[in-house]
Amino acid sequence: MNWSKLLFVVMIVLLYIPMVFLGANVFFPQYTGQDSYYQYSPGKDCYTRYPIPTEKLTTEEEAARQVKMDACFTQQQEEQRAFDKAKNAYEGQKYTFIAIFNLIVLLIALVWVSLTDTIMMALFLGSVLATFIATMRFFDTNSKVGFGILVVTFFTALFFINRKRATLFSWATTKKK
After folding, report:
1. What is the pTM of this model?
2. DSSP letter, residue 51
């Protein structure tokens, strides 16, 4: 096994995968960082709006407070569902971007004949691993376009492996006589 080639492949893959995801966050900045989950506006969460009283309430007062709390919780759940729906739609676009980018890189590795085996293998592994990670990360988006691109990527990877099988695993070091 040629360890220097393997080291170069690992180095390229370790740079490629974060590059893809950072690029996706740069071009699709919404719902990243602290904006990646639903947050109540200050003072809008139900416990702040309707705190537990320090003095004992009458049955009617407690019932009225509970009705307000229930309505508040229902409203917050509706707001969170709307947020999650918008986030999933947006992340579906982000997943599609990542999948298309990785498919293009996979096609480049497949057809660019002047690439060395090391770079070709690194691009192949990087695009396949980044697509796999993106699929797991954005699984809940249910993107139909993303699924279509994933199917094309799958068959492209099969074609790549079949076409490059002669050179794909021929990394044994040759001994000079």
Report:
1. 0.78
2. P
